[in-house]
Amino acid sequence: MFLSLPIFAQRVVVVHSVWSSPGSISIMNASPPFTLRNGIEPHGSTLNKVLYSSGYLYTVSSGNGKIYILQDDNHPFLVDSITLNPSSNPYSAVINNNKILISLWASDSVVLYDLTTKGMVWGLRVWRSPQYVGFNGGYFYAISTGYRRDSFRTDTSTLYKIDTLGNIVDSLKFGINLLSMEFYGTDTAFVSGGDWFDATTQRIYLISTNPLTVLDSIPTPQNIGFLKYVNTDTLLALGYSFAGYFIPSSRAFIPLPLGSYYGFSEGEVYNERIFILAAGDYTSNGNIIVFNRNTNSIEHTATVDVGPISITLSPNTLSSKEYVYKSPENIKAVYDITGRRVVKPASVGVYFVVGDNGRVKKVIKR
Length: 366
Prior knowledge:
Elements: E1 9-16, E2 23-29, E3 36-43, E4 47-53, E5 56-61, E6 66-71, E7 77-83, E8 90-96, E9 99-104, E10 109-114, E11 120-125, E12 130-136, E13 139-144, E14 156-162, E15 168-176, E16 178-183, E17 188-193, E18 203-209, E19 212-219, E20 226-231, E21 234-238, E22 243-247, E23 252-255, E24 264-270, E25 273-278, E26 285-292, E27 297-306, E28 308-315, E29 323-324, E30 331-336, E31 341-342, E32 349-355, E33 360-365
Parallel strand pairs: 29-33
Antiparallel strand pairs: 1-2, 1-28, 2-3, 4-5, 5-6, 6-7, 8-9, 9-10, 10-11, 12-13, 13-14, 14-15, 16-17, 17-18, 18-19, 20-21, 21-22, 22-23, 24-25, 25-26, 26-27, 30-31, 30-32, 32-33
């Protein structure tokens, strides 16, 4: 029972993007009764992304060029930050091996920082206006949208494959204004985007990642800015006014019955539920939509602060029955938050410990 991901990751964490203003955090339980807390720790300026890693939350602040680091607690709180060029407009980020790769939209570059020293490891100049960054199979991936900031026009995009030392090992120029990428299998991925007003450019591409090659191109209902793996034949596909499934085997799009909600930005998958952010017009309160895949219907909606923009899963934090990891005595097995058994816990992180009596305790090793 203790070997599957959903048992360990039990909250969704959302950051809110308010133009040129601090953004807050919302936290909601990922299972009924979906307890919600809004307005937590406002910080930064025009937040764009939230990530979870080893007991900490990382937020990307586009408005003032910073990465904020928060202790992931019952009430997350700021503990540190990484200062970038204030005019670089950091857009997104990905974490691997205690390092964070950040796309700098206004500086046409990506930079890698060490999360321990807070120092830059390397930086790369890339094609115009990079947004998406990811990591898979030992390599970083970055997409430059090609967006022309001087004339406010979209253009051809470029996908980069980058090794951990900062060397570009492959690149591929294709598509228009590509915004999202989701890995699908060992050497394939889907990439989506397009011009907002030109339907002929709005497409999802199946690509090979070794080497980078376009394998197929499928028209989309609109500009799809977010893709998320759901299962072996389903991806969640989100556009500003479209939320649905993309079925790779049939190349079909199936809209989700979400009523009049719009302003979709990101989503997370947990058990049979999909958590979808609906910001509307970004001037009034937004919503977290809990969509149940088993019933194919909305199970719950939660009203949150203005501008929900990014969401991540997070394990529950310490309660009176949870302990700080001190020694391996009387321990039968240890699992990380993905449900994988570990021989020796890393230096920091959240773990689940099975004792000789069969009971499970969640511990945080700091």
